[in-house]
Amino acid sequence: MPGHTATPTRPFDVLLVEDSPSDAELTRKAFQRQRVDMRLHHVWDGIECLNFLGRVDPFKEAPRPDLILLDLNMPRMDGREVLRKVKGDQELCPIPIVVLTTGGERSDILEAYREHANAYVIKPVDLERFFSLVGNIRNFWMQTVELPNRG
């Protein structure tokens, strides 16, 4: 059967790596609007992301995410470095990473794909377009494709 949906036994886990409180809250609201069985986990920067993925305190009980939504421009460790580290790790590299950022510089887009981002999406400024974008991300990653951590 093509595609899949989150199973009733385990919600879909999404890790949002975002340093902007307002963008993080908008993303949370956009997913809530989708009414899908999912858990949105939020970390503030690349270091927290790697700690979450490595289950380092305070993330000892963290689930392995089915999808990572990654901002590029963050303090301490930016998204570019996170991409390099996650995609360079044999255990973590199968986790799909969608770069979700405000910047659309050609060099950033090319670098993200060179570092094996699975998608690069520019955040729209308009609220309804942002909600629609999150719906498209949800439809594709949670309903259309088969993911390595679901099964």
TrEMBL record:
Keyword Phosphoprotein included in the entry's annotation: yes
Source organism superkingdom: Bacteria
Keywords assigned: Phosphoprotein
Pfam families: Response_reg
Gene Ontology biological process: phosphorelay signal transduction system
Residue ranges constituting the Response regulatory domain according to the UniProt record: 13-138
PROSITE patterns linked to this entry: RESPONSE_REGULATORY (PS50110)
Residue numbers carrying 4-aspartylphosphate: 71
InterPro entries, A to Z: CheY-like_superfamily, Sig_transdc_resp-reg_receiver, TCS_response_regulator
PANTHER family (alphabetical): RESPONSE REGULATOR RCP1, RESPONSE REGULATOR RCP1-RELATED
Name by which UniProt lists this protein: Response regulator rcp1
Organism: Caulifigura coniformis
